[in-house]
Structures
1.
Amino acid sequence: MSLKLSDYRTKVPPTTQWCPGCGDFGILSALSQALFELNIEPHRVVIFSGIGCSGRFPHYIRTYGVHTLHGRPLPAALGTKLANPHLEVIAVSGDGDGYGIGAGHFSNAGRRNIDVTYLLFNNEVYGMTRGQPSPTLKLNMKTKAMAFPNINDGVNPIAWALSCGYTFVARGYAYDTRHLKEIIKKAIIHKGAAVVDILQPCVTYNDIHTKEWYEWIIDSERNMKRLYKLEETGYDYKVKDPTNEEEVIRKKSQAFEKSYEWGDRIPIGIFYQIEISTYEERISQRYKEYFTKPPALQEIEDPVTKSPKKDISKLLESLTV
Ligand code: SF4
Ligand code: MG
């Protein structure tokens, strides 16, 4: 039976729903289309979320889904991928969940390079708890729920991801679903840890960085688009030869530089990509059967006697110090 886009739609409505017009709907549409176009059947996909509006994401899509704890979708996603590397594993977080509460996980996942896709819904506020400033809201910005302008500065997700070692780093825009879908497809195909920071207007609490703000600058002198696509400027994000240190530094430096462009012009698209060995490949060098017999696919008990199939006493012995 051939796959249909509607196969990703669930008939069960989430108990708590996103506000009408929320950017999250654009991300849902882009991811569903990406999975469909890549012909990845729903039963091969697991989506992990944390807490916040983005946490409801797995409730909106018909794949396997796990709604975890605040800031914890990444460790659950990484553990699942390592247990069964044949699954398509995707983690989703809001900016508070991923860049705040889950910040330690964000940093460490980059240097491991496990083959998962991490989508971050960046709306600069904690939407679910009524609009407090999140880690991405910049200094002196003030949204409607704040009594005073932001006393903290915001993090730069792209520069942070680059310095952690993520091997695919991109930024998308929730209302440009066609463009976002193409980025997500490339992130899923990418062999390694992929991060996509998604500018996701919160129509209820972020009254400064709205759809109109992202899309146009209109004043007496200008009528131009604020968001622009890196690929339309000839920007070359991909490291062709990962063994060429000079090229790696050059491509990473240009991505860092681009990541600080914010204001009148904001780039979206892929900032950086490099293909190096994944964590799973490194494990398979130590355990030759890792890909054919990963932990989740091993039989652990005799189906009839129910006794353990493996004697792990030797393993435990070898780990004793
Ligand atoms: Fe979306 Fe904001 Fe509503 Fe949350 S509060 S569902 S982010 S519009
Ligand atoms: Mg948020």
2.
Amino acid sequence: MSLPKINPTKTEAWKRLSEHFDATSEVLMQDQFQEDPNRANSFSITWNGFLVDYSKNRIDLETLQLLRQLADEVKLKEAIEAQFTGKHINETEDRAVGHTELRNFGSMKPEVCETLDKIKSFTEKVISGEWKGYTGKSITHIVNIGIGGSDLGPDMVCDALAYYKNHLDVRFVSNVDGDHVMESLKGLDRETTLFIIVSKTFTTQETLTNAQTIRKWFLEDAGETDVAKHFVAVSTNLEAVSSFGIASENIFPMWNWVGGRFSLWSAVGLSIACAVGYDHFESLLKGAHEMDLHFKDTSFESNIPVILALISVWYSNFYYAESECVVPYSQYLSKLVAYLQQGIMESNGKGIDRNGDPVDYETGTIVWGSTGTNAQHAFFQLIQQGTKLIPTDFIAFKNSLHGNEDHQNKLLANCVAQTEALLQGTKGITVENNFKEFTGNRPTNTILIDSLTPRSLGSLIAMYEHKLFVQGIVWNIFSYDQWGVELGKKLAKGTLNAIAEGDMEAIDNQSTQKLISRIRS
Ligand code: F6P
């Protein structure tokens, strides 16, 4: 069996959720808290240093019971089983979805073990200085060349774990924007820089162009035989990597059963292992594995990703919330939202269901956000008093890493105050006019984690991975392909011919023709 193919809107639970929505949509959370002194306990989960408080949502016990019934009716349990047992649930590409296998300590696939060993010995050599460049000097800088899943995850994690970093300076080049490439090369010494080319397919235009440009830049001073000491690659396409000129011992394998946006746990995370050392990289994987076990083995009543996913479906499909916001109260997580945007939107931005028919209900989540407290001084006004309902995740860490108590108290005070303000509004406060009135009743989840460690970060990322999977199952869509992106890649070949060579044959549209003519003029 692959995945169940059940239209969620045809379930009994959906019908009952619609009725329940009609009956409860005017209920205020403020009142629910007043009426139930135990609400915060009933609607929160404590797990492995995480407190996930989902009590500030427009839900009651019946909402959750019906949402779980929905999960049962769309056969979520069977879908989880299918993913974890390696069924080809990425049906449109006929592939298994195995990112959890990359961190399946205890029962790891031999090829994953071998690759982890290779990552370990390589990173140890680079970090210790044993790996020498072409003039005999040790490596000081690393540049990851990749895009999408071959960039966003490693880049986000390297920033998130900056506290745990060693002496290596790790940079990321992703955009085919040549100015970006040249800026990224500024100040780099060819003799002490190592380039990691990361591309699952090794066909991605941006990555190959950037890799060629950087290779040429390297060869301005070094020779062809020196490439082996400065370029390594991560890919499934071993042939293409070899023809790029990378020595076979410098190739780290990847597999088709790992989706690009879920690949930071594989050798795609080589730059992470270099930046923080192999042991921290392994802890990151272990944290994710712990979340995998929680997700796989915990009943839906207390299953963090399942509950977060179902609440999100509640807002998306019954309240018609247009987007969700994520606000980490940690500058270390400043790239988390961009990372989640690929994971969530590339996965669930689908309008065709698993039977191949167009859906007639909402799917996908528009996810956006930024770090707190900065976001409070930017877009929070709209969440607080705007006309849109924007469920927001607040992510915070109980302890800071550098231990500055005054800062940490202020940071957390702001985080908690915002969820409180969004809930209570100006209820009970006399305001002079309507402009100052703030209705509150705006939903939030708070994910309060003891400390930002490689382990807790791994669990946090895996939590969102599983959340998006659950939503894809409920919406009856395939979360693990990305055909829309593929079309854009194809069309870019035609526009490139037109821009570079003046060959307008493939360009039918007059607006596109006009733009290209202007570019060429
Ligand atoms: O953006 C589409 C996509 O296929 C992503 O899914 C992937 O992460 C990215 O391109 C990069 O692909 P590759 O690793 O094959 O270069």
